Structure formats: C-alpha cells, structure tokens
Amino acid sequence: MAPGWRPALTVLLLLVGSVLFLYRDTGMAMVTIWYRSETFTHAFLVPPISLWLIWRQRHLIATKSPQPLFSVLGLAAGVAFAWLLGDLVAINAVTQLALVTLLVLAVPAVLGLSITRLMIFPLGFVFFAVPIGEFVMPQLMEWTADFAVMALRLSGIPVYREGLQFVIPSGNWSVVEACSGVRYLLASLTVGTLFAYLNYQSTSRRVAFVLVSLVVPVLANWMRAYIIVMLGHLSGNKLAAGVDHLIYGWVFFGVVIMFMFIIGARWAEPDKVLLPTASDPKLAAKPASMARLWAVAAGFAVLVALPHAANRAIELSEGAVTVQLKAPDALAPAWQAVSSPTAYFKPAFENPSAEINSSYARQGPSVGLYLGYYQHQDYSRKLVSSSNVLVHSNDPNWARVASGARSVSVNGQPVQWRTAELRQSGLGLSGNQNRLLVWQVYWINGRLTSNDYLAKLYSAFYRLTGRGDDSAVLVMYTLQDSQAGNADALLESFVSDNHAAINTLLSGARRAK
Question: Do the beta carbons of residue 400 and residue 421 sit within 8 Å?
C-alpha cells in the first residue's frame, strides 16, 4: 500500500460521517422512500454494490498515494448551496441529489483525482440510490394508453377513449400510475447499467446496452398492458383483474429482462486486469502533507455545515404567523357568493395551511373558486408536489379527460393558466355526463405562474430575501355546456373581474398575524 493511506482513510470516514450526520433528515427521507415505494426498492442494493465495485479494485487503488484537492471545495460549496435552495422549498430530488453529490465529492477532496478515476463508475452508480424518475410517469402513462388502444383496434376490438380511460365491449379500463411502467424502467436501467459495466470494456457497447435497457422496459410495458386487457377481454374479465393484473405484469417483465441479459451476454468482453508495474511513475508520488489533508477536510466540513446555519437563520427571521382565510360574500360587486352552485369540485391538494372552496355567480352559471394557501412549507406540507393534483387517477367522482394551457391577461400582463377538462366518473358511451372546465395557476407572494419549476424558484428567492414562502393555488371551474367556448369565456370574465379581489384576499391572509 502506498504511503499516506491510513490518515487519508481516517479523514475520509470522518468527512462522510459528518455529512451523513448533518444531512441525516435528507438521508432518512431517501430510505423512507425506498421502503415505502416499490418503484425504488432496488435502491437498497445500490450502496453495497458500489462498495463491492470499489473493493474489486482495492489492489490497484492502494498503489496510489492520496493527494487532497482544494479545487473540489468550490464544487462542494455550489452543491451545498443547491441543497439549501432545495430544502427551502422542500424539493426531495434536489436535496437528495445534493447529499449524494457531497458524499461523492468527499472522495476526490481527500484522495485526489488519480484515485477517483479508478472508482469513477462505482461513485457514479451511487446516484441510482436517489429516488427520482417519477416525473416521466405522465408521459409513460400516455404512451401506454396510446399503444394499448392502437393494438386493440388492430386486433379488431372497438375502443372508445377519453384521456387515459377507455371502453371496450367487455368492460372499462384505465391506465393508472401502476400501469406507467416507471418501476420497470428504473429497475431495468439500474441493473442494465451495472451489467454493461461488468460485461463490456468498450464504451460503445456499454452505452448501447444502457440504451437497450431504457427502451426494452418501455416496449415491454406497452405489450404488458395490451396483453392484460386482452386476457381480461377474452376471459370475460376473470383473468388479469385485481392483483393478478400486477402479478402478470412482473412475471412478463422478468421474462423480458432475462432474455435481454441472455442476449447481451453473447457480446460480453473479457475483463481487463490492470496491474501497476514497479516502473509506473505514479507510484513514486509523494504523499500529501498532513497540513494539506486536514486543511482540505476542515474546509469541506465548514462548507457542508454552512447551509444548515443559513437555514436556521432564515427560519428564525420568518417567525410565527397565523393564516386567516375566509371566503367573502362577494368578490367584484357583480359576483356574489351562491349557496347552491351548479357544480361542486375540490382539487386534491394536501395539507394547506388554510383553504376556501366557494362559488360565485354574476348571472347564469356559477364559477367555483378554490384557494389553497400554504405557509411555512416543509416536506409534509408544500404547494408544488407530485401528490398535489386536480384529481387522482382513482378519484371516485371526477376523471381528467383533457389538459392544456391558456394565456389570459392579468393586470395587462399575459399569464399562462393550466386548463383541464374533467368528466364525472363512470365512462360510458352516452356522452351525457357532467363535465367541468378547470383553470389552475399558482400565486407566489403575489406573482402568478403555472410552471412548477418557476413556482419553486420564486419561493426560494423570496425565502432567501426574507419575504417568506407564502403561496397558494388558485383553481377556478365551471360546467361545460353544448356551446363551445362558453365556459372559457365565463372563466376569463371571472379572472378579469376578480383577480384584484383575489390578490387582496391572499395578501391579507399573508399579512395576518
């Protein structure tokens, strides 16, 4: 073993331990997701696999002397600041990626680049432990529905489709989150990447197999969905219903992935054994001084601790505020509250600090107004979240059948609103169900946006500048009718007449103490 390893390993373990201690809440949140979600259960295996991959190269690694790098501290500072921003607005993906990145950066900070290069894949593989990827779920669900409907029609089965739900003569089907295939995709990508690294030596083959491990589970999930619907149709819905639906899916996926690996193994390349020679000039590198080692470690430790101190200071500066939000009897003079609205709907937004759901009418149909107000947001209470949606896929009352966007002028500035069409649950062929047109936008300290990422950025900026994280979701809805455009015109008129009153209402709640 080259000189300098004993103190370097001691310092590295101390740094990793300090990062895990300081960011323990972030780490526990990761483990909780692994345990709770089947999509990320495979992540339990990622850290031990990474350690095993490093252990395989221990003899080669041990021949090089650790050379601590001060330049890594700049990267660590940027990552620590990214964690702070993510924590201020409770974005798990950002804070967890930052935690793993800090753990990885501790290696080149203490051991240097030459050693880090030897373990670059194991260190990169650790990022598969971060539970991200569900953002592709809506697109995967859409593709699955597209393929299933197309395949059914090619099979001679008539299909009536609205959104992610469709009807065939033997019954109703719906593509829900479990049908998206995202869990197959993430598991396949993780295992496929490891397989490519262990079985191939050329970069081109490794990249090709990783791409195959991305494409195959998507195609397999499409076929799985089609086969399940066909099994249900041909068996009179006695097969592929309920839990069988998921069991058949995993069996089919397992068979497909097994064949993918069997075929991939045909092009496996023998492992190259790299053994350093005595004449290797890198073996002659002198170990770094203890002063340099401890200086780098101290700088790294300070940088990873600073975000926690800043976060605490921001929380103390915001103080305690009591939110008061009450539905007014009228907004603009012509829009009065009505006790018997023409439609009732409540968006699926969880744990708001305060909320109102009221209806207003000028003449004719009413417009529903839902305001969900969020303050002192954390990981259990936050405005922008994958669990905060207009309707869940299993909602017993309403189903989303269309989505879009519409630009509406507010105070002379164009504001993009999300739009959706909802239909009462129970898809049939009569077409007489009640339908809602829904508009949605976020209010972030008086600023309107429908973009999730901008909403988070605005919230982080306002918290950093001492203006708090007060935010709200505005949802307006009304019944569709037979005249195209009437509902849009009604909602646009409602926004034009009442945006000032709504902004005053929300600003008043923000200032209430």
Answer: yes
Backbone angles phi, psi at 269, to 5 degrees: -110, 140
Q: How many CB atoms sit inside 10 A of residue 254's CB?
A: 12
Averaged in consecutive runs of 10 residues, what is the pLDDT profile of the chain (513 residues)? Answer: 83 95 95 91 94 92 90 95 94 95 96 93 96 89 93 92 87 83 90 92 92 91 88 75 57 79 83 55 63 92 95 82 84 87 85 92 89 90 91 85 89 90 67 77 94 93 89 93 78 92 87 50
- Token pair for 194: 């490891």
d(CA 404, CA 393): 18
Decide: 403 and 436 in contact? Cβ < 8 Å: no
Distance CA 157, CA 175 (A): 18
DSSP state of 40: G
Q: Which residues contact 13 (CB under 8 A, 6 or more apart)?
A: none
Q: How many C-beta atoms lie closer than 10 Å to residue 496's C-beta?
A: 13
Put residue 162 in one of left, alpha, beta given phi > 0 → left and psi -120 to 50 → alpha.
beta
**Beta-bridge partners for 409:** 414
Cα–Cα distances in angstroms (integers) from residue 89 to residues 454, 458, 466, in the given order:
11, 9, 14
User: For 401, phi and psi rounded to 5 degrees?
Assistant: -120, -10
| d(C-alpha 45, C-alpha 102), whole Å | 20
Beta-carbon contacts of 395 under 8 Å, excluding residues fewer than 6 positions away, are: 348, 425
CA 72, 78, 82, 83 torsion: positive or negative? positive
The string of DSSP letters for 231-288 reads HHHHTTSSSS-THHHHHHHHHHHHHHHHHHHHHHHTT--PPP-----TT-GGGGPPPP
State whether the Cα torsion 35-253-185-395 is positive or negative: negative
Q: pTM, whole model, 2 decimals?
A: 0.86
Orientation of helix 203-234 relative to helix 243-265, angle to 10°? 150
Paired tokens of 176: 């829900």
**Six token digits for residue 45:** 């295996």
Q: Please choose, from the candidates 12, 42, 99, 89, the residue with its C-alpha nearest in 3D space to the C-alpha of residue 454.
A: 89
Let me know how long the chain is.
513
Residue 372: both structure tokens together: 């969900």
Calpha distance 210→199 (Å, rounded): 12
How many C-beta neighbours within 10 Å does residue 481 have? 13
